[in-house]
């Protein structure tokens, strides 16, 4: 569905380790379905996300994507680079 490089995955996991509270990585698509579409990555508390978010486990953290964005990301190559 989308790709997070090993280097970025390790970097993000390190950021999560430094936090005192449980956080996840919320992935959203702004202006989905348009030529101006943009994928954003934000920290979020999993307990604050409603049930329509799907969890994707990574080494050291979990990513969450709303089911409404899954179709837009299907077949996409979204890379997180640092």
Report what the structure shows:
The protein is α/β, with parallel strands linked by helices and 82 residues long. It has one domain (3-77): Hypothetical Protein Aq_1857, Chain: A. The chain has helices at residues 6-17, 67-73, and strands spanning 3-4, 24-30, 38-44, 53-58, 61-66, 79-80. The strands form two sheets. Strands 3-2-5-4 form a four-stranded mixed β-sheet. The longest helix has 12 residues, at 6-17. It starts with a strand and ends with a strand.
| Mean pLDDT across residues | 87
**First and last CA, distance:** 20 Å
Strand proportion: 35-45%
Level-2 CATH architecture: Sandwich
Largest sheet data: 4 strands, mixed
The named CATH superfamily: HesB-like domain
How many domain regions? 1
Regarding quaternary structure, what we see is single chain
Q: Order of strands across the widest beta sheet?
A: 3-2-5-4
Question: Could you say which structural class the secondary elements and strand pairing correspond to?
Answer: alpha/beta
Rg to the nearest angstrom?
13 Å
Number of E-type strands = 6
Low-confidence stretches: none
- Tally of contiguous helical segments: 2
Task: Please write the CATH class name.
Answer: Mainly Beta
Enter the CATH topology name: Hypothetical Protein Aq_1857, Chain: A
Helix % is 10-25%
Instruction: Give the H and E element order.
Output: EHEEEEHE
- Rough shape? globular
